[in-house]
Design goal:
This protein is an alpha+beta fold. A hairpin with a 4-residue loop joins strand 5 and strand 6. The radius of gyration is 20 Å and the shape is globular.
Length: 353
């Protein structure tokens, strides 16, 4: 999977070091970090009245994430669970009934496809699995790393028509009219999971910040006197550096970049975000960040924007309401929408306003 497998976004949590007066009396900040879910680091920070209360809420959130990870898993099977792995192997024989979270995600992606959003195709799995195999082999044996033959990629591309995925909303089943099609939801799964768990947290602990390896979902303002949470955007040229800081609440933040998941062939890096037009790693930008209410939409859009020239991507974002973005181009040029600029430290934003 393109992003669910080690898609580690260029985002980290950033908090003010200044102790501010408590905004909500009796609330304290607590945190939990877990590794391995969605093959990444999960961080949850929230304000509760007691450690026990936070632990109970965090346990519920992590349990929900673990179950979603099993449902969205394309590489492992689980007894009695018709997850993505199961669909990709058996949905060509007969319609497969799947759990609601997975069916709803597929239906959401299908709606975007039918609306003409073709830059991000979750039916590109046949192509992406080839790249995954070559990348894995290249990482395991760098001295023999190679690129997939274009003929093999083009043959796989013949089986990437999302219209061949038949979704029955009444029976909640998935059927592949093309037996060689394969689904890859890596470009949306973590954002969608962050939305589902974020909805749970909004009921139990409204003041929270949830990070799924960089897919960020922010709840209401921190209960310590700040108005906004701080989320830092990693510098694409410096893994230890920071490009800027976003100050926000009640929003989602997602970044795609070419600097984390890659392998090297003949001295050149080949990252994991594949352009459906060329069947090669996209070569327009270094990184793109999207901010909007929906984590699923932000996740979906970052991949779409990554495989588009800046001008086309900017036109798309400008056509959408409530969506902001930042682009980091190959030459180091930074572009951002006015709405996103207003959230940045570089343009005067802070956690207090």
């Amino acid at each position: 999977m393109k992003r669910a497998l080690l898609f580690f976004l260029a985002l980290s949590l950033c908090f003010s070091s200044v102790l501010l007066p408590a905004k909500a009396e009796g609330y304290q900040k607590y945190s939990r970090v877990e590794l391995g879910i969605f093959d990444t680091e999960i961080t949850l920070i929230g304000y509760c009245r007691s450690q026990q209360e936070f632990n109970e809420i965090a346990d519920g959130a992590m349990a929900h994430l673990k179950e979603l990870n099993r449902i969205f898993d394309a590489y492992n099977s689980y007894a009695g669970l018709n997850n993505l792995w199961y669909i990709n192997r058996y949905a060509d024989d007969a319609p497969v009934e799947v759990p609601s979270p997975l069916f709803d995600l597929l239906l959401w992606c299908k709606e975007k496809w039918d609306e003409g959003w073709r830059q991000n195709n979750i039916a590109l799995g046949a192509v992406l699995s080839i790249w995954h195999d070559y990348r894995t082999a290249g990482l395991d044996h760098p001295q023999t790393a190679s690129l997939p033959p274009m003929e093999e990629l083009q043959a796989a591309y013949l089986h990437t028509d999302f219209d061949q995925v038949i979704l029955d909303t009444e029976k909640q089943t998935v059927y592949f009219a093309d037996p060689e099609i394969s689904l890859d939801i890596g470009a949306v799964a973590k954002g969608y999971a962050a939305d589902l768990v974020g909805d749970y947290l909004e009921e139990k602990m409204p003041s929270f910040l949830l990070s799924l390896g960089g897919n960020i979902r922010a709840g209401i303002s921190p209960q310590d006197g700040r108005v906004n949470w701080g989320v830092s955007i990693q510098d694409p040229d410096d893994p230890a550096g920071m490009l800027d800081v976003l100050y926000l609440h009640s929003l989602s933040v997602v970044t795609s970049g070419d600097y984390w998941r890659y392998y090297v062939v003949d001295g050149k890096r080949y990252h994991h975000i594949i352009d459906p037009d060329t069947l090669m790693p996209a070569d327009y930008i270094q990184a793109v960040t999207v901010v909007c209410e929906s984590g699923a939409l932000a996740d979906y859009l970052t991949t779409a924007l990554f495989v588009m020239p800046y001008e086309e991507g900017r036109a798309l974002i400008d056509s959408l309401s409530g969506v902001e973005a930042l682009w980091s181009l190959k030459d180091g040029t930074i572009y951002m929408t006015d709405g996103l600029a207003a959230m940045t430290r570089s343009h005067g934003a802070s956690s207090r306003e």
